[in-house]
Amino acid sequence: MQETRQPSPPSARPVETTPRGGGWLPHGYHLDTHSHPDGQLVYAAAGALATTTERGTWLAPANRVTWTPPGFEHSHRFYGRTDARVVAIPADECGELVAHPSVFGVSPLLREALLALTGGSGRPPGADGRLRAVVIDELGETPEQSLHLPEPRDDRLRVVTDLLHADPGQTTTLAELGRTAGASERTLSRLFHTDLGMSFRRWRTILRVHHALVHLTDGQSVTDTAIACGWSNPSTFIEAFTAVVGQTPGRYQVDLHHHGK
């Protein structure tokens, strides 16, 4: 299994379990690598959540839900004070859901169903099953919004991605990175496409957006976040962030504050 990577992990004591059904979790709350016999949904009603498997990292900003199928080894890290809601989907109910980890947007109906499932006891018999059916139906109608950062298998490419993970704001060219990795720019460009399914520029942009989401969740300004994550000016950052996340960084912070109330 590949080494777990997270954007700018805060110093926090690792823990092994989430509260039953979820709850408010502190910045830096971390779950080491584990798996479940059932599928698992984790809804970040506020804050942000990074889920890492050997295939890479999926980041869920506020008001997104992460999906991990049964049996997938994964770890979690929570950024900002996170209202995390955890819903188990029995393995025999997972057939209509995607067979890989992913992130989905949350519709108003899906949000209410998730909140009801994690809102404590007192529901009538059979209610949880009916609510899960609503959740599964809604996810089936919702396009994936996976902020997925894949990780390479090729050792030369791993040298490059390690350097970028260590300093996502650097402006080093692929040719310059290649000299450190012992590979030509052309070879590395090909490897990004064949091993990671995207261009070098696209991969680095997603890496920077991952870090930007953490900075914004931590309350940093849009301008400071842009500079820290390698953009030359706020306007280019806003454009790139919006293209990946689907909303401006300013709107994201407003929604983060709203859902965190």
TrEMBL record:
It comes from the Bacteria. One of its GO terms (molecular function) is DNA-binding transcription factor activity. InterPro entries: Homeodomain-like_sf, HTH_AraC, RmlC-like_jellyroll, RmlC_Cupin_sf. Residues 158-255 form the HTH araC/xylS-type domain. The keyword Lipid metabolism does not apply. Gene3D superfamilies: Homeodomain-like, Jelly Rolls. Residues 1-30 are annotated as: Disordered. Keywords: DNA-binding, Repressor, Transcription, Transcription regulation. SUPFAM superfamilies: Homeodomain-like, RmlC-like cupins. This is HTH-type transcriptional regulator RipA.
